[in-house]
Amino acid sequence: MYLLAFESSCDDTSVALLRDEELISMHTYTQLEHIKTYGVVPEIAARLHADHIFDLIGKVLTDGWITLNDVHVFAATSEPGLLPSLLIGKTVAKTLAISHKTPLIWVNHIEGHIFSVLLERKITDIQFPSVVLSASGGHNDLFLWEWLYEIEKIGSTLDDSAGESMDKVGRSMWLPFPAGRHIDELAQKYSLELHKNVPHFPLVLPAESLDFSFSGLKSAALREIETRKKDHGEITEVDMIELSYGYQKTITDILVARTLEAQKKFDTKSICIVGWVSANSALRKSIEAFSQESWIPYYLPKSMKYCGDNAAMIGIRAYWETRKAS
Ligand code: KG4
Ligand code: ZN
User: Fold this and answer.
1) Does residue 10 line the site of ligand 1, with CB under 6 A?
2) Of 8, 107, 102, which is closest to residue 314 (Cα–Cα)?
3) What is the pLDDT of residues 45-74, one digit of tens each?
4) Is any ligand 1 atom within 6 A of the Cβ of residue 186?
């Protein structure tokens, strides 16, 4: 069964061709045009999706040596996301499905992120129930994943997402958008001998829930940046490394603390970490250390290309929908 999947919920135009569970080809156009506006402008994003989506379809079909007539199922992200962006992928998918008299499956974007751990894995590789942390620029949620189709949201952010808060703090240090990756790179330059003034931020964990809150932390970091700008005339590289290290450490401590709390509360057999923030090196180290100690397995998307917004995750979620029906 050939499945052609589309993802266009934000600023990545992505098309993927799957043969059952196997990814045959994926092409993604990441809209770097939003760097100069330091954030995604929905109308510009939609125009760029429309400009690129047909070329991407051509590329994946060429890679798979098939034509649109050979596609058995179309799939597209339905929600959540930027409405003008979503409309491009949805309209293309629906038009193709109607004109080829072929089924169309709508996929929730966040469920796509959760299912991204199933790319290049068998379902039996995952120990259920699992607790899933899904964090990116647009969302920051915890889920109890009982089994394939049984997903319950158990926590969410009350304000900013981890990625969004990194982007805002990064902007204040003149880092390019999106700043998460740059903060990660700066933090990796930290050395105990050279960096004596790492700021310590409070670990904010909203009480009696599994929710997150990053806005207080963000304000504290922004105040620290302004103080250093005043003290040093401008923010120095040492400041940037110290701030990135301290800030990233607090963010990852919060993410990991809440995820482990949820794992204990629901006594899950494993942990999944998905979304762009799962690319973060400190988060990966921290969860690896926990897993080594506790023997509780964890799963990240098999490849970095499945961490960000991508059509392969939409395709694999749709594939499992076809299995539900059979
Ligand atoms: O591209 P984007 O808007 O996509 C989604 O929301 O799905 O956002 C990706 C987010 C950004 O906030 C970016 O700063 C963050 O993920 N990010 C990271 C890393 N790479 C990307 N955050 C922490 N560490 C990283 N290595
Ligand atoms: Zn996403």
Assistant:
1) yes
2) 107
3) 999 999 999 999 999 999 999 999 999 999
4) no
Measuring CA to CA, which residue among 52, 113, 66, 135 is closest to residue 309? Answer: 113
Q: What's the residue count for the chain?
A: 326
pTM over 0.90: yes
Give the integer Cα–Cα distance in Å for 66 and 19.
Answer: 11
pLDDT of the residue at 39: 86
Burial class (CB in 10 A: 0-12, 13-18, 19+), 44: middle
| Ranges of residues in the chain whose predicted pLDDT is under 50 | none
Closest atom of ligand 1 relative to the 309 alpha carbon: 7
Residue 292: CB atoms within 10 A of its CB come to 9
Using CA atoms, how far apart are residues 318 and 5, in angstroms rounded to an integer?
A: 8
**Other residues' Cβ atoms within 10 Å of the Cβ of residue 6:** 29
The pLDDT assigned to 15 comes to 98
Q: Is the Cβ atom of 242 under 6 angstroms away from ligand 1?
A: no
